V-type proton ATPase subunit F
Amino acid sequence: MAHSAQKGRLIAVIGDEDTCTGFLLGGIGELNKKREPNFLVVNKNTPRHDIEEAFRGFLKRDDIAIVLINQTIAEEIRYAIDSHDQPIPAVIEIPSKDAPYDASKDSILRRAKGMFSAEDFR
């Protein structure tokens, strides 16, 4: 079954207020039948447990194809992100306005680099 071709798959966002607001203004905000949102706004007072719970909840939902997460927030639950090995939903780390993207921290990029040798690019 082609997962990405399924109709009605959503993007989920775990991010700071500015990131979530931007994506919500772009039209990604949805509630499922259980009235659960497809986003989590994280601030300095958000417990790590709540972030991890939202992340694992998004992974279990069959209506979500992509989980976008600010890289600074991903660092807080790196163990959970590194343990996710399924292609769908894809987990994509994105920068925030306060912190640039650091490719060396991105678990998906590290995993992809491990699949290729330097000779593959010659």
